[in-house]
């Protein structure tokens, strides 16, 4: 129950961050950095009387229905929920905090912070096996009929949206939008990896019993022990392998430093761990 509440809160935080980054930084500057929100900015230029959040909501629902008709119910509750929640938040922001002009004069700073905040929100959604829907659905439809990779299809859709933005808002805004699309990809990947990253640790020490006890009892983690022998001495040794969260690794490193300062340790970043004690399969 606690896990479900946590997941639900993370969904709402991710959706809120995506909406805030777009509404306060990208939308006022007409930076249509791909996605359904970028398409809505272009449409809003021709239909200024319609609220931006309302346009995004209409597009989201339309694409969800189109995806359901053409490729079936491939999107779960979380994605449907976020696809509706994000434009609703934007619509509410338009009502309670209308913006008549950009917050700052520096366009590049606003592009960076808008993409950064929105990307963190999207990364949280992706880590919860959700997404904001939108152009993801278009990419899946393209794959269904033309067998173009979903990643390439998504890039194609975003590129067409930036072309439309260039036509409507001018070359400068179009280039900023293209830069935003590129930044989205890098930042989302970086944040998702940062959320899921773990440490694989190999330890060789004559005080292996103490280290194993610390890992299993103090950290509550498992470990695998290999028998090995030194190339020079031929002496048989134990090699302890364990996978830890970053904060757990810091505790283990401090313990080993006090217990055996001469221990041999190697550390590798693991981008995803599935199974007991980590992310479920």
UniProtKB/TrEMBL annotation:
InterPro entries linked: DUF2179, N-reg_PII/ATP_PRibTrfase_C, UPF0750_membrane, YitT
Membrane spanning stretches: 46-68, 75-93, 108-126, 146-169, 175-192
Subcellular location: Cell membrane
One GO CC term, this protein: plasma membrane
UniProt keyword annotation of Lipoprotein present: no
Domain DUF2179: from-to ranges: 221-275
Keywords: Cell membrane, Membrane, Transmembrane, Transmembrane helix
Membrane-topology descriptor: Multi-pass membrane protein
Pfam families named among the record's database cross-references: DUF2179, YitT_membrane
Source species, domain of life: Bacteria
Protein name, as recorded: Uncharacterized membrane-anchored protein YitT, contains DUF161 and DUF2179 domains
């Amino acid at each position: 129950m606690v896990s479900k509440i946590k997941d639900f809160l993370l969904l709402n935080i991710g959706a809120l961050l995506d909406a805030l980054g777009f509404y306060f930084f990208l939308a006022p500057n007409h930076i249509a950095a791909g996605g359904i929100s970028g398409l809505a900015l272009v449409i809003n230029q021709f239909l200024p009387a319609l609220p931006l959040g309302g346009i995004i909501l209409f597009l989201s629902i339309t694409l969800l229905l189109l995806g359901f008709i053409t490729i079936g119910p491939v999107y779960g509750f979380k994605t449907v929920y976020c696809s509706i929640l994000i434009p609703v938040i934007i619509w509410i922001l338009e009502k309670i905090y209308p913006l008549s002009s950009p917050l700052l004069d520096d366009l590049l700073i606003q592009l960076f912070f808008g993409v950064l905040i929105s990307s963190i929100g999207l990364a949280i959604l992706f880590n919860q096996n959700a997404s904001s829907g939108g152009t993801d659905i278009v990419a899946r439809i393209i794959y269904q009929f033309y067998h173009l990779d979903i990643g390439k299809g998504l890039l194609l859709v975003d590129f067409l949206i930036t072309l439309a933005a260039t036509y409507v808002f001018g070359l400068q805004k179009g280039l900023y939008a293209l830069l935003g699309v590129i930044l989205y990809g890098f930042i989302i990947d970086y944040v998702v990896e940062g959320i899921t990253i773990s440490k694989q640790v190999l330890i060789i020490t004559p005080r292996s019993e103490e280290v194993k006890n610390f890992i299993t009892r103090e950290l509550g983690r498992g470990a695998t022990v290999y028998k090995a022998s030194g190339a020079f001495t031929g002496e048989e040794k134990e090699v302890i392998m364990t996978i830890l969260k970053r904060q757990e690794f810091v505790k283990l490193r401090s313990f080993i430093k006090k217990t055996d300062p001469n221990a041999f340790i190697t550390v590798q970043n693991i981008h995803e761990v599935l199974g007991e004690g980590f992310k479920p399969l």
